[in-house]
Amino acid sequence: MIPKRLKPVFIQAHANVMTPKVSKYETIKQYLLNGIASRTFTDTIPSENQLAQQFGVSRMTARRALDELERNGSVERIPGKGTFVRKTTHYTRGFFRVRPFRKWAEDIHATLTTRVLEARLMDPPRDIARKLQTDGPVVLLRILNFFDDRPVRYAIRYLVADPCAGILEENLEQVSVHDILINKYHLALTKINQSMTAIGLSPKLASLFDEAPGYPVFYFRRLAFSYDNPITYVENYMRGEMAFDDTFTPQFDQTDFLP
Fold first, then answer.
1. Looking at the chain, which residues constitute the CATH 3.40.1410.10 domain(s)?
2. Most buried residue, 44, 57, 80, 81, by CB count within 10 Å?
3. CB proximity list for 124: less than 8 A, separation 6 or greater
4. Residues 86, 36: Cα–Cα separation, whole Å
5. From the CB of residue 172, how many other CB atoms can be counted at a distance below 10 Å?
6. Strands (E), the chain
7. DSSP structure class, residue 213
8. Which of 163, 224, 186 is nearest to 18 (CA)?
């Protein structure tokens, strides 16, 4: 049974979000990160000399930008050869991989439908501003997903308005947020901070799932980064009886297995 349809709230973004002045090495660093995310740089990264000449800075300034990118895992530097984009694979840590929800539906042969309950630009609550490291507006999305007309996931998502405000113009009932961030905005999602607990639903949330208060769900909290920059924070409530089969490449930290 589908809950009574809620009228979605849409408020479009009209203003360009101002970006604070940054240092020269940060400008170089962001230029390189944008180039990696947009796949302008897929292999070799410009050298210190090239960057210093292009941006009119010293080699030391260019080197600082490259050093920071190497520390955060965006690039690797090979002596005598140069600096290269670090090759990455799909997410393989955490309880679940980050993937479009439609893939989970396909795995269990279910028909996925999506309902946008709210989509607007807003001033962030203090804890969200802290998580996303922003003092500007954020995009709020409240989305309910169904498998075969049965509510299975409720998501409350916040995105940094710069560069994500345009997502309010997208058809979010047809395309997933991650599809848009990765394929249209070319944002490389490089790190996830995640927690998961089991909780019972409050009366208000239980009504969205057409269940009684206290109904068990998985409660996920995820903060996604594009390199150094937090991009989106989401709280997902997912049916507790759902099971997901998955195959992925494990990543081991050998120190975890020391006696």
1. 97-239
2. 57
3. 132, 134, 137, 138, 158
4. 10
5. 20
6. 9-10, 44-45, 75-78, 82-85, 112-122, 138-147, 150-160, 191-200, 216-226, 229-239
7. T
8. 163
Residue 161 contacts residue 229 (beta carbons within 8 Å): no
Thinking of the domain 97-239, which architecture would CATH place it in?
A: 3-Layer(aba) Sandwich (3.40)
Question: Spelled out in words, what is the top-level CATH class assigned to the domain 24-85?
Answer: mainly alpha
pTM of the model: 0.66
| ∠ CA 30-35-40, rounded to 5° | 170
pLDDT digits (tens, 9 = 90+) for 64-91: 989 888 887 788 888 888 999 876 544 3
pLDDT of residue 24: 86
Using an 8 Å Cβ cutoff, are 161 and 132 in contact? no
The C-alpha atoms of residue 250 and residue 252 are separated, in whole angstroms, by: 6
Residue range(s) in the chain whose domain bears CATH number 1.10.10.10: 24-85
Classify residue 94 by its DSSP letter: S
d(CA 67, CA 70): 5
pLDDT at residue 91, rounded to an integer: 39
CA dist 219 and 200 (Å) reads 9
